[in-house]
Structures are given as C-alpha cells and as structure tokens.
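In this section we walk through a basic example: taking a raw amino acid sequence and producing a predicted 3D structure, encoded as discrete structure tokens. The instruction is simple. Fold the sequence below.
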Amino acid sequence: MSPLQTNGVAGSFPGGRGSTPRHPVPLGFVFRSRAKEEKAPADKAPVNFSKQTRDPQAPKGRPTPKRSEAQSQRRSVASTPSTRKDAAKRQREDRRAQMERQRQALAGGDERYLPARDKGPVRKYARNYVDSRYNVAEFFLPMAVIILVMTLVRAAAIQQIALLLWLVVIVLIVLDSVFSGMRLRKRLAERFPDQNRRGAVPYALMRSLQLRRLRLPKPQLKRGEKF
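The resulting token sequence is shown next.
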C-alpha cells in the first residue's frame, strides 16, 4: 500500500489513487469584502459625456417671467431689511406714511385711508346728518366760557343769571341730543337695514359736541344741504 500523497498546498485535501486532483481555492476569494463588490458597479458606472444641446422649442418646465415681474422681484429682494436696525427704521417709515395718509384722508374725506372708527357708509351718513344741521351741543364750549366769565363777576344778579343760563343750556343740549339720536336711529334703520349700525348714534352725538371747524373728518356738506 502506497503512502498518501498531497498536492503540497495548504488547505488541500489528500488524494488517493485514481482520484481527480482538486485545485486549491485562494483564501482571498473566500474572504473578499462584500462592500467592495457593492461599490464596484457604482465606480465603474458609465459616464455620459454627451454634449447634446436642448431643443430651443422644447419646454423648460416653467414659464418665463415677465420683465415687470422680474423687476418687482428684484426690488423686493433689494428692499428687504437685512438687520434689526433696518427693519425698525422701515417700520417707522411705514407708520409715518400711514399716519400721513390718514391725516390727508381726515382732511379730504377719502374713505380708503380713514381710521377704522370713521369707515363705512353708516358712519359717513351719521357725519352728514350732524354736519347738515345746527346742533345745540356744538355751542356748548362757547356758552361755557361765557357762563364762566359771568360767574367771576362780583354781582349777585349776574351770577344768578349765569346759573340760570347754565341750566338752560344743559337742558337744551339733552333734549336736542335725545331727539336727534331718535331721528338718526330711525333713518339708519330705514337706510341700512342689513348693515351693522352699532355705535353710530353715539358717534354722531360726540361729533355734535365739537365745533364745526374742528370736526374730523372735515364736514363735506353745508348746513341745510340735502344728502
């Protein structure tokens, strides 16, 4: 019996007579990193260096902006404040411009820039109602000054007249305000049945207490004028 023979390579199995020799398998093939196999296709991916140009008639996927829109976008980006100081300055300028528009609206009667308490057709009608008639309440301040001067005179008769005149003025103002408020409320209900009329009557009565030239917004009607 002949002794067993080996191929002389580590890791090979012994072979006898008549057996087919087996080729040894390299260890590097068995333990090759799988990560390298995964990265290999990506590294060897074909790169397309085609310099094919886009057809001018082909759509770009988005509409071309107009020149005015592009200019407005550039202005908006350029005018955006970059710091807190610039933002505060811009806010002050906007507030100043808004107050100037309100001042001009109060003087001219422009409804677009009036304060919230003066806006709307109901408030405009209430102002016209007050401005188109004489109101006893608008003479309150001049009469109060006259009565005050009369009370300073050291004469009992004049002081009694001043006290009586004071009472008469107060009664007339109350009566005129009550009847004016009732008539105005009735007219508003007939003219604006579906609109909010809350606060319109007190708004008109407070306006009637002011002198005509000091009222804001400025009166748009003359006394006795129809509206």
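Looking at the output, two observations stand out. Confidence is low (pLDDT under 50) at residues 1-19, 27-31, 35-51. The longest helix spans residues 156-191. In the next section we compare this with other chains.
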